[in-house]
Design brief:
It is a multi-pass membrane protein. This is EXPERA domain-containing protein. The protein has about 260 residues and is mainly alpha-helical. It has one domain. It contains 7 helices and 2 strands; from the N terminus they run αααααααββ. It has a two-stranded antiparallel ribbon with strand order 1-2.
Length: about 260
């Protein structure tokens, strides 16, 4: 009987424990994990309410300090306000709390735990995710706020910087998709829960926005820059053909009287 008790005790001790969290794969360790005490609807309503005053103030300031700014440019400005806030504050929160985010119960902490149902790497201090988010905070966040200033002041530097920022958004998003996909199909590790909702809405949909919008803005800037360069070329050719500019072999170009 003692032998049977020992064997049964060893069997219970060596059996896999039930996961203490709802994430995939169940074997990952999340130290001191605390489940969310707010449901998804509550989190989304609270998070959405933050943006109403932010967008309102940004629109008012753009209209007040640059009345000639077109409505489309104001909408684009709001997009970069969104990007700047998310990169610096929301993703910055993740970077600063990644080691213990599983136990955080404030709004940002619970939002990250909700999103992690589609990508559990956010709760395990994954090296790629942590590095990518850190660069997003430092580089993409800073460029986003710079874009807000450039659009608001109609700066000529707007489109060169917009090209750089949009390429950064598209590249980082594609890399994010690629690493998760390779983990699943190359290493056999799926970081997303099996429900289709978490994959298509959270993982795919929420990130795909940062491919669609930056791609559109990238094309906008490319066309604007190309149009400006084409206009300069036509102007130079016109002035040259009309004889307004002649080459002086003894010095720089001079203007004929």
């Amino acid at each position: 009987m003692d032998l049977l008790r020992k064997l049964s005790g060893q069997s219970a001790a060596t059996s896999d424990p039930l996961p203490s969290h709802p994430y995939s794969p169940p074997s990952i360790a999340i130290p001191n994990f605390v489940p969310n005490d707010k449901d998804t609807a509550e989190l989304l309503i609270s998070f959405s309410a933050i943006w109403i005053p932010i967008f309102g103030v940004a629109w008012w300031m753009a209209s007040r300090y640059n009345p000639s700014l077109k409505s489309l440019d104001k909408i684009i400005l709001l997009w970069f306000v969104l990007c700047g806030c998310l990169h610096v504050f929301f993703e910055g929160y993740f970077v600063s709390t990644h080691s213990h985010i599983g136990q955080m119960q404030d709004l940002f902490g619970q939002l990250w735990k909700e999103y992690a149902r589609s990508d559990s790497r956010y709760l395990t201090s994954d090296i790629f995710v942590l590095s990518a988010e850190g660069m997003s905070v430092a580089i993409l966040g800073g460029l986003s706020w710079l874009m807000v200033y450039f659009i608001g002041t109609s700066s000529p530097y707007r489109h060169p910087v917009q090209i750089m920022l949009c390429m950064g958004h598209v590249y980082s998003d594609l890399l994010y998709y690629a690493t998760a996909t390779l983990d699943q199909y190359w290493r056999g590790v799926n970081h997303c829960r099996p429900e289709a909702y978490y994959f298509w809405v959270y993982f795919f949909g929420m990130n795909f926005i940062w491919i669609v919008v930056p791609t559109l803005l990238l094309f906008q800037s490319v066309f604007v820059v190309a149009k400006a360069l084409s206009a300069l070329d036509r102007m130079a050719q016109s002035m040259h053909s009309n004889g307004h500019i002649s080459k002086n072999p003894l010095g720089p170009s001079s203007v004929k009287p």
